């Protein structure tokens, strides 16, 4: 290797007086000057940046026993600057500085043991060196000790000790420790629950530019958790984190621009942030891009692009994307139709409690579509979705209990599940309850209750409920006789395709006087405008 002094630029080339002074001392073997010269070459301070020359001068100083030169030489080996990257050499030089009490070297050596880089993975050694540095006030080491106590790595889990070390680092202004301390106040781990303390520490870390804290603070303002809801502040913090590449902030910022929540709606800007987050592997953003390409929202419709983005998210285990990918395989959109592949993706999503996927599997097993018909399997999947209060699934559970063919007949269970769905406003279930009360099937006959449930379903456009209401008003059966109301409901049922309604419209019209007919026409126009 060419020696350092032989490679030095000539003094006549315009170097600073300070450089020439330090160089002269270094060449005379003064270790601190050798280190300073190395530092100048690392940072391009008064000389062109040259990592190789920096290593040569650091090595001279390090061999003299200068601990900060040993530390900096370790950094060069760890980063592969001026030398081939070599974690073992980095560890060796860090250790020489660490045993002399150099805190930064103790901290870095602790990390190498924690990660098993250049040395064997050894949490006890990591703990030892972090403790040495922490006792000297090194904030990074204090934070790492906090994490080890929090997770129980190398020591028994102890939230109070974790808090102690986090606080020491946080009070020195170490942003990660401030963030970790905020999380503990937020989750009541080692300290009483205190949202204001949590927000205070989140803010301290956020104001130092720590992106996870900025994101968390943005969430608070976005949702009004512990602070007054403020969309502008939420956007400001999301943006500060997003511009640092924080993927979840990029995604949430996209959602706000997409919905126009707190900002003017801007589909183009939303798409830009979705792409940034998706490009970093954010599964929610990838799924959202898939939806946009599938439906041509803000981009040209492109099923192949939709499939590609859904797959990226689906392979990360994102349930919504697995379901959407299943739908593409089922329809043959952007891919060759493959029912078994569709069902496999539905299954992956369903096992993660995606209710639409669970419901889809229930439908398939009930109907025998692309799978053998199996009412037990259908019921199992419907029940899993129904237990998440998914009203269509609650209705289908009721329908299976109501079915002779399924072999699970249980009128009380059927009524109970219909009622759950009906109470959520599901029209098919409301109509089913109306029929049961109308006919006395499994319950006492109750025309008033039948009328109530028919009316709930009819107002949502359920044609058979509209037809039945018309008949009840026309005959005065279970409802106040009212030919105008009868005509109104029967006409709506006829327009909705109930063939039998036409005959009853004629017979009801024949019983009405001109004033009633005019009133019925007026109501029909209002109903049409409302629709």
Could you give the topology of this structure?
Elements: H1 17-27, H2 31-43, H3 51-63, H4 67-79, H5 87-98, H6 103-115, H7 123-135, H8 139-151, H9 159-170, H10 175-187, H11 195-207, H12 211-223, H13 231-242, H14 247-259, H15 267-279, H16 283-295, H17 303-314, H18 319-331, H19 339-351, H20 355-367, H21 375-386, H22 391-401, H23 411-423, H24 427-439, H25 447-458, H26 463-475, H27 483-495, H28 501-510, H29 514-530
Pfam family, one: Sel1
Protein name: SEL1-like repeat protein
Description:
This protein is mainly α and 531 residues long. The protein has a domain of 123 residues: Serine Threonine Protein Phosphatase 5, Tetratricopeptide repeat. It is built from 29 helices and no strands. Helix 16 packs antiparallel against helix 17, helix 20 packs antiparallel against helix 21 and helix 27 packs antiparallel against helix 28. The N terminus is likely disordered. InterPro entries: Sel1-like, Sel1_AlgK, TPR-like_helical_dom_sf.
Low-pLDDT regions? 1-12
Strand proportion: under 5%
Order of helices and strands: HHHHHHHHHHHHHHHHHHHHHHHHHHHHH
What general outline do the C-alpha atoms trace? elongated
Largest sheet: none
Number of helices: 29
How many beta-strand runs?
A: 0
Radius of gyration, taken over Cα atoms and rounded to an integer in Å = 36 Å
Helix content percent band: 55-70%
Q: What is the third-level CATH name, the topology of the domain at 14-136?
A: Serine Threonine Protein Phosphatase 5, Tetratricopeptide repeat
Q: Supply the CATH class of the domain at 14-136.
A: Mainly Alpha
Distance between the termini: 87 Å
**What's the architecture of the domain at 14-136, going by CATH?**
Alpha Horseshoe
The pLDDT mean sits at 94
Q: State the fourth-level CATH superfamily of the domain at 14-136.
A: Tetratricopeptide repeat domain
The helix-and-strand class reads mainly alpha
Pfam families: Sel1
InterPro entries: Sel1-like, Sel1_AlgK, TPR-like_helical_dom_sf
Organism: Massilia polaris
Protein name: SEL1-like repeat protein
């Amino acid at each position: 290797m060419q020696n350092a002094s032989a490679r030095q630029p000539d003094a006549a080339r315009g170097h600073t007086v300070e450089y020439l002074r330090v160089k002269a001392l270094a060449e005379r073997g003064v270790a601190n000057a050798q280190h300073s010269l190395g530092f100048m070459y690392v940072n391009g301070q008064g000389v062109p940046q040259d990592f190789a020359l920096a290593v040569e001068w650091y090595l001279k100083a390090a061999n003299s026993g200068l601990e900060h030169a040993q530390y900096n030489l370790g950094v060069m080996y760890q980063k592969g600057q001026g030398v081939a990257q070599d974690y073992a050499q980095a560890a060796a030089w860090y250790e020489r500085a660490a045993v002399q009490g150099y805190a930064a070297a103790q901290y870095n050596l602790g990390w190498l043991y924690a990660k098993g880089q250049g040395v064997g993975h050894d949490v006890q050694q990591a703990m030892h060196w972090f403790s040495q540095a922490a006792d000297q006030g090194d904030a990074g080491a204090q934070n790492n000790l906090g994490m080890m106590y929090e997770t129980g790595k190398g020591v028994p889990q102890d939230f109070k000790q974790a808090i102690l070390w986090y606080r020491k680092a946080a009070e020195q202004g170490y942003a990660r420790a401030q963030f970790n301390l905020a999380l503990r106040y937020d989750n009541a781990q080692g300290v009483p629950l205190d949202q204001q303390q949590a927000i205070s520490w989140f803010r301290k870390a956020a104001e130092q530019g720590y992106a996870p804290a900025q994101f968390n603070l943005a969430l608070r303002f976005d949702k009004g958790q512990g602070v007054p809801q403020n969309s502008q502040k939420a956007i400001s913090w999301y943006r500060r984190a997003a511009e640092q590449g924080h993927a979840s902030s990029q995604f949430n910022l996209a959602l706000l621009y997409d919905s126009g929540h707190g900002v003017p709606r801007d589909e183009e800007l939303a798409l830009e942030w979705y792409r940034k987050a998706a490009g970093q592997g954010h599964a929610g953003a990838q799924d959202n891009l898939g939806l946009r390409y599938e439906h041509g929202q803000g981009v040209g419709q492109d099923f192949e692009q939709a499939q590609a983005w859904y797959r990226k998210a689906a392979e990360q285990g994102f349930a919504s994307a697995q379901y959407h990918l299943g739908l593409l395989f089922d329809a043959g959109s952007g891919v060759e139709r493959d029912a078994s592949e569709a069902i496999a993706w539905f299954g992956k999503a369903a096992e993660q409690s995606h209710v639409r996927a669970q419901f889809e599997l229930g439908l398939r097993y009930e109907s025998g579509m692309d799978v053998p018909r199996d009412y037990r399997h259908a019921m199992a999947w419907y029940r899993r979705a129904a237990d998440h209060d998914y009203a269509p699934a609650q209705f289908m559970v009721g329908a299976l209990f109501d079915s002779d063919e399924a072999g699970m007949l249980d009128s009380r269970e059927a009524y109970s599940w219909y009622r759950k769905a009906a109470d959520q406003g599901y029209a098919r279930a409301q109509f089913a309850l109306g029929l049961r009360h109308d006919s006395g099937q499994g319950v006492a006959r109750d025309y008033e209750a039948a009328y109530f449930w028919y009316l709930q379903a009819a107002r949502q456009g359920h044609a058979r409920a509209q037809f039945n209401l018309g008949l009840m008003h026309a005959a005065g059966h279970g409802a106040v006789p009212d030919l105008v109301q009868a005509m109104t409901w029967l006409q709506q049922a006829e327009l909705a395709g109930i063939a039998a309604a036409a005959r009853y419209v004629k017979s009801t019209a024949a019983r009405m006087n001109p004033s009633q007919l005019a009133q019925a026409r007026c109501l029909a126009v209002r109903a049409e405008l409302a629709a």
